[in-house]
Amino acid sequence: MRVEAIDLYHLAMPLVAPFVTSFGREDVHDCILVRVSGEGSSGWGEAPVMRAPLYNEETIETAWHMLRDLLIPAALGRDYAHPAEVGGWWAAVRRNYMAKAGVEMACWDLWANSEGLSLAEALGGEKERIPAGVSVGLQASDHDLVALVRRHLAEGYRRIKVKIKPGRDLRLLEALRDSLGGFPLMADANSAYRLSDAPHLQELDRFALMMLEQPLDHDDLVDHAALQALLTTPICLDESILSAEDARRALQLGSCRVVNIKAPRVGGLGAARRLQETCAAQGVPVWCGGLLETGIGRAHNLALASLAGFTLPGDTSPSSRYFSEDIIEPPVTMSADGYIAVPRGPGLGHTVVMEQVRRWTLRAESFSDR
Ligand code: OSB
Ligand code: MG
After folding, report:
1. Distance CA 52, CA 356 (A)
2. Distance in Å, CA 215 to ligand 2 centroid
3. In this structure, what is the dihedral angle of CA atoms 340, 343, 349, 355, given to the nearest 10 degrees?
4. What are the Cα distances from residue 316, in Å, to 77, 302, 320?
5. Preceding omega of 330 cis (within 30 degrees of 0)
6. Is 163 one of the annotated active-site residues of the chain?
7. Ion ligand 2: protein residues whose beta carbon lies under 5 Å
8. Is 159 helix (H, G, I), strand (E, B) or coil?
9. pLDDT tens for residues 321-357?
């Protein structure tokens, strides 16, 4: 498959409700959509970068720069026999994983389309449907949070994740357990605590959480290991794991017992699959996280989560949880018992609606090898 042209679109799509975490509030989902074309076919990827470097160090502007000035020039005109090769094109470029993932994931879709395979088949995914989880942001009050989680449980979600931060943790979890009982629940702190908070975090053990996600700094495997030794609740790492090598180091140190895998965080689907294999070899369960993706990134996540090694429900929710109208047709939907069907058609298995893409595009740029 030869890469002949690449198009970039910066989208800003309004969310149906603001998403509030320990690091900030998002009313709009920003991302860079990447379309790679070649040999009469095309494929889509999504780099879910934010405007500010709050989740990782990348931003819309840094990713656009990396794509335009380094990653796309190294990709145009390249031939690949299999998309697992693509990540290697930028071996000399450090990090900038979301920018790389945008192109890498589009190359998977392009290849799958030309082979007549679904993305799940291209990756080796076996599941026909995946259990849906939902990530619930911080709400104005514990009362509002309980009402929202009650609604999500009635909608069928198979696991609930709530965001916590210092001052918004024990009472909130207590309210959920008191009102709604023993449903599958976990908490994500997005690095809001320090190791000196360990005595406080030990109090979370009484809520029987499935896991506590990323309590400490994004680059601190050492303190996470010290904290894990003091908790019965398993720690799950998100921001701290940027590669399969990071996971090997984290597991060697005892920094976590579960890993959240997001393809954009690690440079794409090839790297995400290697990360999953590293975890599986050590008996460590993984699940597929999310970054509020549009239908394009969501379809990629469904394909990834269809791999047998993804044994826990993740953060993949239906389109309607994020957007009033998605940019793909049909939108991603969830059954009443909380499952999402893995797309079976070629590539994404959904059609990208260009009218919707253009509607939310703030900036676009095209590149070709001619
Ligand atoms: O930490 O998992 C996270 C969204 C944006 C940035 C970071 C995170 C999240 C989520 C939402 O939790 C996951 C989703 O619903 O896509
Ligand atoms: Mg997280």
Report:
1. 24
2. 9
3. -10
4. 34, 7, 12
5. yes
6. yes
7. 188, 213, 238
8. strand
9. 999 999 999 999 999 999 999 999 999 999 999 999 9
**CA gap 211, 258 in Å, rounded:** 8
pLDDT at res. 334: 98
Q: Which-ligand-closest: CA of 321?
A: 1
* The two three-digit tokens of residue 253, written as one number: 């140190």
**261: three-class secondary structure by DSSP:** strand
Q: What 3-state DSSP class applies to 3?
A: coil
Model confidence pLDDT, tens digit, residues 277-319: 999 999 999 999 999 999 999 999 999 999 999 999 999 999 9
Q: pTM to 2 decimals?
A: 0.98
| Residue to mutate (ligand 1; options 98, 163, 186, 291; most atoms within 8 A of CB) | 291
Q: Measuring CA to CA, which residue among 103, 82, 90, 155 is closest to residue 334?
A: 155
The residues facing 130 across adjacent strands are: 340
Strand, helix or coil for residue 338: coil
290 CB near ligand 1 (under 6 Å): yes
The one-letter amino acid code at 130 reads I
Over residues 8-36, the mean pLDDT reads 97
Give the whole-angstrom CA distance, residue 305 versus residue 312. 9
38, 3 Cβ separation under 8 angstroms: yes
Looking only at the bridges linking them, the beta strands covering 133-136 and 159-163 are parallel
Cα 197-199-201 angle, rounded to 5 deg: 65
What's the average model confidence in pLDDT over 87-99? 97
